[in-house]
Amino acid sequence: MKRNSLLLTILTLASLAAYAGEAKTPGPVDAAAAFERLKTLVGEWQADTGAMGRARVSYELVAGGTVLVERETGEKIEPMLTVYHLDGNRLLLTHYCMAGNQPRMQARAFRPDAGELEFQFLDATNLAAPTVAERRQAAAHASVKRPTAGHMRNARFRFVDQNHLESQWEFYENGKQKSVETARYTRVQ
Q: Which residues pair with 82 in a beta bridge?
């Protein structure tokens, strides 16, 4: 009897854990609405990023309004480019990074009422091949393959109002978060 009770308890807990995991999984993103929100950024923006100095970002629509191009420059940052576009029912970005690689991310959460948009890593080009030691370490820890070379992995945007934007970019190396770059931009034009 105790054994059946223990088994029932374990199954119940496992069922609750699975349900809780499903509840945290975001639903489908309204990619078209998220892209329309991004389009409102067209113009010039600036921020004081602290350690990286003053940064300037410009947004421009190209290709008949189907692509948003972001150009970033700064006092202590090499110029970079990020391109946003729809791909069917997905919103994608490709970040042309000063790290020499090009991570692609897909919008995974859009909360229009909160003004929040989140992107997660999809894949990348020009990631350096892992060393033998890095491959062994990755094989020992998980079956999930993660790039080990330094790259941007996730990005979050918060549209505070028409003239203020907050961004957060996560930089990963060796399968772990190494740094987070945050900025609060103000529209200047």
A: 70, 95
